[in-house]
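Entry 14. Structure prediction run on the chain below.
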Amino acid sequence: MDPQLVDQVLELAIEIQQIPAPTFNESKRGEFIYERFIQENLMDVEIDEIGNVLGRLPGSGSALPIIVSAHLDTVFPIGTDLGCKRLAEKVTGPGIGDNAVGLAGLFGLLWELNQQQVTLNSDLWLVANVGEEGLGDLRGMREVVNRFAGQIQAYIILEGMALGQVYHRGLGVRRFRITVNTSGGHSWVDYGKPSAVHELAQIVTRLLAIQIPEEPRTTINVGVISGGISVNTIAAEASLDLDLRSEDFAALDELVRSVEGTLQESQSPDVGVSIELIGQRPVGEIPQNHPLVV
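Output returned:
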């Protein structure tokens, strides 16, 4: 790519990065992308009912369309200092790589096609989708896939941290919220009664003791813990968010069964344990010799 275009992409990425866009609160960033799509003279520019931004670059032929997308949301909450620095060989700042650069890459693609005077033989849809991170559970791309109902030649996803690399395998993910409930009480008067916090801590220890395979690579992570209301109470409720991942569906399914078994063993008449599915992504891949990969 022309160095001048690279510079334009980076400048746009910084501009995008300065707009807060935590998952479920991407609207301001989406409106910015919407206006930029219009400025680029894309056709059928819209913000759909859940916040995805779409625009179409018409092609010259009748081949099925191609979708190139990048997610709008970031893991950083509202109020995060979004200070950004651009050095000679590096740009740093919260969310610049994930995924402001990816979003700017949508425009970089447009600019490169225009500069090279390339006309595709199919329509090209550019999509800035919501809900990729965390509990967003890919809701934006699920909506896009449902909308086009298989009438698409290919989906290509831009991730700012992965530019220059091709990922052709998708990890399977299951996410759960595990909640412990007890009667609670006062830390002195009711000492000896089960504490939801204490019970949850023991559950974490048991979960991390589960044997997981090195191959296929499989992981388990407790990402969030919450519970209790004060330092001098026996907690009546506590919860954690659990993230399970694997390259293989069977290995992931086996890990889920192990987690469920661990939770069953943790229950008692005085301790209630519940599990809620809060996210899931299927395992998937395309061959290394696929045209999109090679």
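The longest helix spans residues 96-115.
Filed with the rest of this week's runs.
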